Amino acid sequence: xxxxxxxxxxxxxxxxxxxxxxxxxxxxxxxxxxxxxxxxxxxxxxxxxxxxxxxxxxxxxxxxxxxxxxxxxxxxxxxxxxxxxxxxxxxxxxxxxxxxxxxxxxxxxxxxxxxxxxxxxxxxxxxxxxxxxxxxxxxxxxxxxxxxxxxxxxxxxxxxxxxxxxxxxxxxxxxxxxxxxxxxxxxxxxxxxxxxxxxxxxxxxxxxxxxxxxxxxxxxxxxxxxxxxxxxxxxxxxxxxxxxxxxxx
Length: 249
Description:
Elements lengths: L3 H15 L2 E7 L3 H15 L2 E7 L1 H9 L6 E3 L3 H9 L9 E5 L2 E6 L13 H5 L4 E4 L5 H12 L3 H4 L3 E4 L2 H9 L5 E5 H5 L4 E6 L9 E6 L4 H11 L2 H9 L3 E2 L3
Parallel strand pairs: 1-2, 1-3, 6-7, 6-8
Antiparallel strand pairs: 3-10, 4-10, 4-11, 5-8, 5-9
């Protein structure tokens, strides 16, 4: 027993020394699923995952300004492209991870509607507001404006849009009843019991909703184990449970 104690201490100290902290900048719409995945990863790896959620545009700008992180998961390819052009991500670690659907969501239980050019969305709103993420910066807002424009509905509702910093903030306005309707991802609505899906936007009304992930430049060694886990079967099951479509290689 006496001779085994130093070996035990050495193994314990070695494990503690090997544990790492990985900071992940992730799109706000990933919060429910990614919180669960990070907890599971920490339990098996011993590493600590620090999650920072915001709109993809805000996160990308923080990275451009030198914010310390190892992993970035965006809700569109545009902001990942920007960082790649700036040389701020490790290009060979980039992969498309997930897909999503764009939804018209409502406070409480909503009667289902078909989202077509004939939808009287302005009439449904009346004098109330349509909650959306920033339509010229945040992916969910960009997709939403694009879809409404394609369907010929944007001009009739643009003056009623309440814009928020990220999609979960738009969801919160609907959840609290401060806006009767909003445009979010399908997965956001599934994460909030106070919100229902009135309808899904046609997939051809906007660009594909794709979530790419990558390690930041120079952070590959710290980032790669978690990136590998995110693309593995355990994480895939959690993402699918929360309504995401998992993309293959």
